[in-house]
Amino acid sequence: QAVFQSDIGTLLEQVGTGKESLSFMKRRIRRLAAQWASAARRLNDKLRNHWREQKRILVHVGFLTEESGDVFSPKVLKGGPLGEMVQWADILTALHVLGHNLKISVSLKELHGFLGVPPGRGSCPLTGPLPFDLIYTDYHGLQQMKQHMGLSLRKHKCHIRVIDTFGTEPAYNHEEYATLHGYRTNWGYWNLHSQQYMTMFPHTPDNSFMGFVAEELNETERLSIQKNKVNNMAVVYGKEASMWKGKEKFLAILHRYMEIHGTVYYETQRPPEVPAFVKNHGLLPQQELQQLLRKAKLFIGFGFPYEGPAPLEAIANGCIFLQPKFNPPHSSLNHEFFRGKPTSRKVSSQHPYAEQYIGRPHVITVDFNNSEEFDAAIREIMTTKVEPFLPYEYTCEGMLERVHAYIQNQDFCSPEAPFPPMNSSRVWLSGPPSPFTLLSNSSILTWASNATSYTSWPPLSALRLLASLEGQSCVKACQSAGLICEPALYRFINIKEAFSALDFQCEGVESEMNHLFPAFSAEHSECSLQQDLLLFSCAGSSAKYQRLCPCRDYRNGQVALCRDCL
Ligand code: U2F
């Protein structure tokens, strides 16, 4: 049984030393320890001591290993990306606080030691059973495990979780399909279940949403923020000088109304990209950045970095986040930064989560090239009063709740699991047990009594079947019904009865490998089923198809979990 633990002493020892990235993570773990401890108490009460299995977990942080080049560590104090470190620090803390048996590796040597693979012998299969129930790693780590575990990786693959900042869509993950249909990238094609990829924001429901946390405020801090807010103080998002390049025009408009602060890294002189009227504090430790955000009214992004943690921290400290809308949206098809990433997700602004999940009054997304709109937004911000806000899923309790639910329920290994292994995929093609009925005025599939023996997480009771419009993805179709697409429930709707439940008259039913299936094509009244479980995909659309979508409800502030998922 796993028991919540709030003492972080052993965790800090395990994280090790010798790299700036590890020191950054340890400072963060220490600073947030009290917050995690009180969240653990609250979650424990909420779960009413319900039994939690203690898992043996290996965390192998591939991008921090010397063998992967570790380009991040030397940049920690120089304005380089910190988002990944923030997330790994929080993942480690969550797993530790939940009371699992944790091992941490940031080198190949440690990885070999933990897996029991003899070092230095190239690809050497692991002969015995895997000594872990779960392995959290990243794309670099996955590559390293492939090189050093050889074929045995395939056998143990279902235990792996890949921390993947921007996400991997099923079409890119499926090796054969990606190769045949032009979805091959540097990262994808591991043939995992798409929910084994865990993202930083809930980008696509095809992946699991791992997230991270932001600091929470107590009542005293809230009051003091209210008292000390400076209505004409702005902080610019961007700790690297290059992020300020070409932004003079916006800075000049902003400067008409506000005092501008920056936290741009510099060595000896002010970077030329940062105008003289900006008060540059240099790169600040996280804690001091929080203090600055507590005073500021506006946190403004100029388009890069994409989808980082800082806007959530700013909003949690009572700032309004002003950011540019991207029209057309940025994606791997039209933007260098996303090129080669295994997703075709369209990024509609610098921070789509802030835009879509938080929105006004905390987040204002405008076209920065329209000076009037930009000007008006600044004036609006100066007069709008906002409360500090942090979505529940980004609190420590929210993250613990979600990670707990994943650990106890997600199962990609056993044959009865939500995702049976590849070779049994055909089992479902003949359809699940019938009869299968449609409730009168809603698209809820109900199953005959013999079907209840099929366990599923999220539970089958959460399933709502919908058809998308032509040209619409299941992500959007579920969203427009106030629901979320749930790939784990696809297998239940990949049956011909689902078409009649939605009043589609099938002239023919075929089954094929296509990430848009199951779907209906009006042109020939053709109903198409999915032939390969790994290709069930919420993302993806085509003008030719109305897709069948398994939607579910979600908890307020915790989109990863359905109401009955705990
Ligand atoms: C994102 O990475 P970044 O590191 O660029 O994301 P940010 O949102 O800028 O900040 C990450 C953390 O840096 C901290 C701040 C955030 O928690 O508190 N920080 C700080 O300590 N001192 C400062 O002066 C300023 C910020 C994203 F997370 C990555 O996944 C992407 O790879 C990257 C590129 O899109 O953007």
Q: What is the distance, rounded to the nearest whole angstrom, between the alpha carbons of the first and last residues?
A: 17 Å
Decide which structural class fits the backbone. alpha/beta
Question: Approximately how much beta-strand content do the residues carry?
Answer: 15-25%
Task: List the total number of helices.
Answer: 19
Total strand segments: 21
Major beta sheet summary: 7 strands, mixed
- As a percent range, the share of helical residues equals 25-40%
Mean pLDDT: 91
CA-atom Rg in angstroms: 24 Å
Ions, cofactors and other bound molecules: uridine-5'-diphosphate-2-deoxy-2-fluoro-alpha-D-glucose
Low-confidence stretches: 416-443, 447-453
Oligomer: single chain
Notes on the structure:
- This protein has 566 residues and is an alpha/beta fold.
- The chain has 19 helices and 21 strands.
- It has helices spanning 9-15, 20-31, 33-46, 83-97, 108-115, 139-149, 152-156, 170-173, 175-181, 219-228, 248-257, 286-295, 310-316, 352-358, 371-383, 396-409, 474-480, 490-493, 496-501; strands spanning 56-60, 101-105, 134-137, 160-163, 197-199, 208-209, 233-237, 259-262, 279-280, 298-301, 320-330, 347-349, 363-366, 436-438, 445-447, 464-467, 484-485, 508-512, 519-521, 526-530, 546-552.
- Strands 7, 8, 9, 10, 11, 12 and 13 form a 7-stranded mixed beta sheet that branches. A 6-stranded parallel beta sheet has the order 2-1-3-4-5-6, with helices on both faces.
- Strand 7, helix 11 and strand 8 (259-262) form a beta-alpha-beta unit.
- Helix 2 packs across helix 4 (83-97).
- The longest helix has 15 residues, at 83-97.
- It is globular, with a radius of gyration of 24 Å.
- The chain starts with 8 loop residues before the first helix and ends in a 14-residue tail after the last strand.
- The site of uridine-5'-diphosphate-2-deoxy-2-fluoro-alpha-D-glucose has 20 residues, from helix 4, helix 12 and helix 13.
